[in-house]
Give the backbone structure.
Amino acid sequence: MTLYFVGLAALVAAGLSALLLRHRPALADRSYGLLAGAGCVLAALPAVRVLAGGPAVEGQLGSWAFGIDLLSSAFLLVVLIPGLASALYGARTPSAARMLFVIELAALALVVTARGVIPFLIAWEVMAVLAYFLVTFEHERAEVRRAGLVYLVATHTGTLALLAMFASWAGPSGSLGFDALAARAGTLPGGGAVVLCLALFGFGLKAGLVPLHFWLPDAHATAPSHVSALMSGVVIKMGIYGLFRVVSLLGVPPAWWGWLVLALGAVSAVLGVLWALAQHDLKRLLAYHSVENIGIILMGLGAGVLGISYRVPLVAILGFAGAVLHTLNHALFKSLLFLGAGATYHATGTRDLDRLGGLARRMPLTWITFLIASVAIVGLPPLNGFVSEWVVYRALVGGVTSAGPIRLSLVAVAALALVGGLALACFAKVCGIVFLGAPRSAEAAQGHEADAGMLAPMFGLAAACVLIGLAPALAVGPALAVGGSVARVAVDTAGSGIPEAVTRIGLLSLMLGALLALGSLAWGVLRRRRPTKQAETWGCGYALPTARMQYTASSFAAPLLAAYGPLSGVHETRSRTAFHSHAREIVLEGAILPVWAAVRGALWRLRPIQHGRLWVYLLYLIAVLLLLLLYLAGLVGGAPR
Amino acid sequence: MTAGPLLSLGAVLVLAPALPGVATKTKSLLTGRRGAPVLQLYWDLVRLLRKGAVYSTTTSWMFRLAPVAGAVTPLLAAILLPLDGRGAVLQFSGDFVAFAALLALGRFTLILAALDTGSSFEGMGASRDAAFASLVEPALFLCFVVLMLATGRLSLSGMLGAAPAPSLAMVAVSLFFVLLAEASRVPVDDPATHLELTMIHEVAVLDHSGPDLALLLYGAALRMALFAALPVSVLVSRAEWVAPLALAVLVAGMVLVAVAVGIIESSMARLRLSRVPQFLVAASVLASLGVILQLLT
């Protein structure tokens, strides 16, 4: 545990060094990189040891208890791996931004290791407020300020719900350690219904669960890219961690809550990817994909809860393991995607999909990492996304031989399949429109490759995606252990076919990789023996094709979105000469803002009271004082005691 | 492992290019024409392999990778199917997810290759392919759910071979719909159309030529063979039969499916593009009815 605290101290030191040495940039860069790297590695070491089968560790920071058990270890890796990559990617940002960033990392690490309500909530608030500063770092732009405000309101609403949750849980007992909460779990009325609903609201708001996701697209899209990577890859996962922690402390949640989480997960996943498809802005699109993946994670979590409630241990373990593994995988490939989006923005100055194109030629290395991340996020073999989605699928169908309602969870497979198909369409659109074809604007034509300082963290993340994909047993084993610890059952997967299946998935992925490589090689040789020539793309005889005649992102997504009607949120304006389509944020623009506008309109009637003239306010004061005096006189005179 | 699964796999790999030929021949005969020979695709493949290729100056390595992926992914998906009626070459619990994901990977690379050319025609085909595939996926998985509920087994080798039940008939019809979409046949797509604006799969591979086109054609034929084998395996449980008979029945069943595809092609027109989603949702609805039936029993 000392190692862990030293690591966090190194992270804070990295931030301070960036700020204090800002007049000596070379030295500041070096100390920032070294200290941040050392801090993340040191803090991750205990987590790796626990995941490898070591005992859980506990420690004190002052009077507050911290600990690293299996669940905390998994989430520590979720924080530290993408966190380090993003920190190094952002090594050129202003010193204040760097300081905030690494301290945010330390706060995130404290959130997942806190063992009491007070340290948890303090770390949670530090994390939320620092994230606000990071998101609004480019506050000169009005859209950034607006996104930051919405985020700040949303996150504090969530914190209020969490305060209420912990208060109702701890009751009058006053002991706020997680152990004490776990001991009280059995005495909660209704199996902890109040706690579970408040947790779902509070943590769901942080995780970006539909319909509580409304703050997320703006905040993630307008932040600097490495901050977006941290927000989308890591910060929203704290909501998932919270739900996991609540479930693990509560023991046996009621089945209805499992169904609720599963259903909300399915809705989030489908709507998230549908709304992502409608976006024209690269980073907004990626942000909506986080909503989708949170949905997939929640489907795993829901299946796990159902497994506990209906006493099917294998489903419980697989559900939780799938959720944890998908959390890690999503942290890896989503931060990679945001870093790649940042590189293209850096190179072209635009995030508008329909102004990009052909970047594969100008940014070949960024393109490879972006492609890897895309294949991974769609859940295709041979990469890590497929492995975790397989575990979630396996959990959903795991109840097939049990009698009783858990068999219904098989139907959720259809939602996951639909999400897979839509995600494929969406990332085919992103990759195809941004990187392939011909440049659609002058900015895109002048794009240039990112520098080594940006590419190195991206390749690190891509390597992690490939590694988990080709050697799934490496990741699934520890994930199953985490799942078992949350479900409180001994992991015994012998006879379930799980270890064999994971080995064979690895084999299949290796075969796929090998066949693709060999096939490409063989076909390369064959092509060399045949006469080949270069020509314009066949345009059915049209002689003067231009880049503007290519299919655009909007037209690519149009047939799909048309099938979903108003649900897709696409708002079209057309006149005789112009056509414009805009993707609305249905929940924010359709529900929350109108409601607030109505509230504001109603309160506007009170405006005449506020004159802004001093004598009116003095009059109010005197009037209130008089009223109070009269009240007191009445009280004294009317009711003598 | 015995040689049975490998032999059946080999037979399917060799016979796959005949299936589109059977469908086309049926269609020709029913519409009063002689039609191309059943084995035409084999000759086409040989001819294309000998030819040179033209590459667009816009394209990158993605365009050259897609044909390889288009052939490799159905090949790997094929080793997960119990083609001999007993067991697949590679089987594990939950392998149906890998089956679908491998085929999806092939589609993903194909769509990217189409967008790589920068042509609006190919973009159109790619967009439609992606849109319709996203609706096929739930239907396919719901069919698997029915099979899992019917057998209690979670691998393709276990779930294909259930005892006959009414829900399985629904699955077979739903899988046939899936085949029509996956193999780009009428009423979803028309392989014989000559107008780029109305094509889906054909226009997505418009720029591929020579050996690359040969690989893509072979991959598409193999894809069709796999989806033809699925309904046959659902309807006819061949686990108890001797290997040659099991294989012969599979091949005969696949030929029958191809004939059915030809009959549909000669008896109805292609659906309007905006109507295709309804057809695909119908496949999901059929499979859902199967799920309900299974849950009730």
About this structure: The first strand of chain B starts at residue 53 and ends at 56. Chain B has twelve helices and one strand.
